[in-house]
Amino acid sequence: MNNSRKGNYKLPKIKKKINPRTTEIPLGRPDIILIMLVVLLTAFGLFMLMSASNPRAIAKNDETGLFFVNRQILYIAVGGIVGFLIGVFRWTRIFIQSGLFVWGFYIVTVLGLILTPFIGDTANDTTLVRSINIGPVSIQFSEIAKFTIPLIMAWWVATYYQQFAASKAFNNWKNLKHFVKFIITPIILAAVPIGLVLFQKHKSATMILGLILFTMLIVSNLRIKWLIMGILLAAGAVFYYGTFVDDSTASSRVGHMNINVFKLDDKYEHYFDMNAQEREEEWQTYNSLLAIGSGGATGLGYGNSRQKYFYLPEPHNDFIFAVICEELGFFISLLVILAYLLLILRGFYIAANVPDKFLSLLVSGIMAHISLQVLFNLVVVTGIINTGISLPFISYGGSALVVQLCEMGIVVAVSRYVPKNISHLGDWIS
Fold this sequence. Notes:
Layout: H1 32-52, H2 54-59, H3 67-88, H4 92-96, H5 99-119, E1 121-122, E2 129-134, E3 137-139, H6 141-159, H7 161-165, H8 176-199, H9 203-219, H10 224-244, H11 264-267, H12 283-295, H13 320-353, H14 357-381, H15 399-415
Helix pairs in contact: 1-3, 1-13, 3-15, 5-6, 5-8, 6-8, 6-9, 6-14, 6-15, 8-9, 9-10, 9-14, 12-13, 13-14, 14-15
């Protein structure tokens, strides 16, 4: 009699762990297309920041109007240098795959998230504590967590990949030991930072972290029945969060968020109501849509935005895309979206073709972060949801920008392991 039908199926005797560093992969040239897209978007962001942040900088008694630009240059320098070093040196793959680095990075992130409510500082005229100031440096660990979750998930799945491959073990509902080890444990590891960010009432970061986790489960070849269970759990969490969680303490950055997201008639009536500007909770949406519509096809001209003069809540950060639409018009805005689309497709192409499980999963998680961040920013600017989130590489930001540039450095480093890479950057960096 087949014992597997009785629920007595046993995994083959194999090593508990595999060392991802044991497989040698030929080292090629980095992806020049990816590098050019990141440089282009970052440079364009700095160019637009000079215009979008000018009124706010002058309000800070900076006569030059370059307060935010100067700080952004510093963030670009730090993130760019670290990202460049990550991308060009041979030891990157060995270092980021080491358990010491993965667990050390995870522990530091969790400790930072735990300490933030107690020793952190408020920012952006809100009552919420989301960052820790260390001297002149402000660290937002919720942004670091957007890299930590792909890192720990990729390491766990790649380390136990041989046992993940024994998929028959998951056909037995009674096989609780393997279910906990291969499914529950990595989800718990990712859920810890997500829960800590949720405790900070950071709605946008919580949603992105949850969707990054969901993406990692998909690309990890999770069996369909566990995937369906994950979808149901995620849907329940979104329903609860959208219905009962109130972020109204977020004050002036993005306005009040006490509108039930499931009351569509109330949520989207601002598209048709010309008196929406009179209601505080729809102030940001009204002015964002006004900026987008005012730009038309060709825009009002660089530096000629009207909504950036204290109508938009964060014209240099969350709503910088509205300023782009207003000043440069529909066609340039469409080119920006196209550049993001090419970057995302290029990143997922690298993830799909690199012959290493850990690197493939890690890049997939990184690109999921970037793509979700872009998507959420665009739907916020167009008023589909009401929260606050920055636009990658373009918005003003410290921790977010540095993390994103470092992530791109990792993707560039991984692109060197893609067989027959089509980029040509030269042998001087190898």
